[in-house]
Amino acid sequence: MRELSANVISETVARLCIESNYYLGQDVVTALEQALQREESPVGQGVLQQILENARIARETDMPICQDCGLAVVLLELGQDLHIVDGDLYEAVHEGVRRGYEKGYLRKSSVRRPFSARINTGDNTPAIIHTKIVPGEQLRITVAPKGGGSENMSRLAMLTPAAGRQGIIDFVLEAVDKAGANPCPPIILGIGVGGTFERVAFLAKKALLREVGSNNPDPELDELEKELLERVNRLGIGPQGLGGRVTALAVHIEQEPCHIASMPAAINFQCHAARHKQAVL
């Protein structure tokens, strides 16, 4: 059995917090550049140019892409033959978030009591941690900071099986239309279908981690993604909600089996600052 020090985990999480907030992924940059070529609205073109310039400045000067540096969402794939030593796994992740948000001068956005004394925790903890046990002796860490503007537009519905494919399309289009400019388009839509009430929300968030522009390996879902992207962009919301052809850069769907009486569906909105970085220890 392999051993891994908790301090190494903290150091890695800290680094990923900084890198994810500073350096926009090349897949997102490429999608924005392609969107600029497709956009016909002069205002929309100007917005996309500013977004790309902002990403360049952040990358070259080591500064956050956005003032909202998000809650720290951390996904762990823990090998069943790996033994964590010198500390607790989750506390190591929280400590990494503390170090990263302090060292990287990242805005701390976590409040301890949601509906009463909304006092900032001061270090952006606790992290939002999702863990999957997998074969092997490695630890895969993905840090995906999630800002409030896009997260607030997210939706979940317990649709009936009779709603079918069209029900999912109607649910997505209505949510995007109502969201308008609030999630800072151009957006990426993570959509979860199936599972249970709590599982479908995670599927929607997980869908956002797929490379932007990549095809869904499931042909049926790939076809639905393409149709949804085309129909979302026909809404005319455009970059930053100022009108245009490019409202969304991508639609990604994750699906799982569900109960015979249910069809859960969830949408996790992601703004153009689609931030996530990964490391394997």
Strand order of the largest sheet: 4-2-5-10
**Morphology call:** globular
The domain tally reads 2
Mean pLDDT rating:
96
| N-end to C-end Cα span | 14 Å
| Helix and strand sequence | EHHHEEHEEHEHEHHEEE
Plain-language structure description:
- With 281 residues, this protein is of the alpha/beta class.
- It has two domains: 2-20 and 65-146, 2-Layer Sandwich (Dihydrodipicolinate Reductase, domain 2); 149-276, no CATH class.
- The chain is 40% helix and 25% strand.
- The protein has eight helices and ten strands.
- The strands form three sheets. Strands 4-2-5-10 form a four-stranded mixed β-sheet. It has a four-stranded mixed β-sheet with strand order 6-9-7-8.
- Helix 1 packs across helix 4 (89-103), helix 2 runs antiparallel to helix 3 (42-61) and helix 6 runs parallel beside helix 8 (219-233).
- It starts with a strand and ends with a strand.
- The model has no long low-confidence stretch (mean pLDDT 96).
Defining traits:
single chain, 281 residues, alpha/beta, Dihydrodipicolinate Reductase, domain 2, 4-stranded mixed beta sheet, 8 helices, 25% strand, globular
Q: What's the helix and strand layout?
A:
Layout: E1 2-5, H1 6-22, H2 26-38, H3 42-61, E2 71-79, E3 82-85, H4 89-103, E4 128-134, E5 139-146, H5 148-151, E6 155-159, H6 164-179, E7 187-195, H7 197-207, H8 219-233, E8 248-258, E9 263-270, E10 277-280
Parallel strand pairs: 1-3, 2-4, 7-8
Antiparallel strand pairs: 2-5, 5-10, 6-9, 7-9
